[in-house]
Amino acid sequence: MAEFHFKTPLTEDDVRQLRVGDSVLLDGIVFGVRDGNLIRIFDQKIAPPCDWRGAALLHTAPNVRKLGPGKYEPVCVGTTTSMRMDRFTEGLLRDYGVRAILGKGGLSQASAALMQRYGAVYLSVTGGAAAMETLQIEEIEKVYWEDLMPECIWQFRFKALGPMTVGIDAHGGNLQHDVQAQAQQKTAELLRKMGVT
Hints:
Oligomer: single chain
Shape: globular
Order of helices and strands: EHEHEEEHEHEHEEH
Largest sheet: 5 strands, mixed, barrel
Number of domains: 1
Structural class: alpha/beta
Strand content: 25-35%
Number of helices: 6
CATH topology: fumarase
Helix content: 25-40%
């Protein structure tokens, strides 16, 4: 397993270097997204108000403190479960050029195939690490679609976000799928040893 430290925006060459299990730190802009803004983009057909070519998108709906018009400071920026946003993967990669999706719990095998095709990765954020993640934010630079609060599009500037684990690489590897398959195999072996079929 290798360690990588990248600055966003990411290139296809950046993400093609990564393999499942590698460790990644990110500097620069990471956009916070969640169901509300993704539904607006894909179901309501409203284009995002920012350029996502080479972007890293974090599944989150953060707790923040308002400082003034359009200005916020982070209180707690945690990561949310990714699977319910799985259906948006293809559009994000194909239509908007996203290179990394950050979240917890993994994405489907269909999304893994899309990441291989388009040159993108899924980076697994450690669950329960919101306090550390929040401290890695240098600034909330912009907020788009404030009417969706807290499911706006957040433009965070991070310093050394992570470490995150490559959960899906751009070569078809899917760590979550592999772990589930191993667990199912071990469960079947244990049940056989116990005489349960």
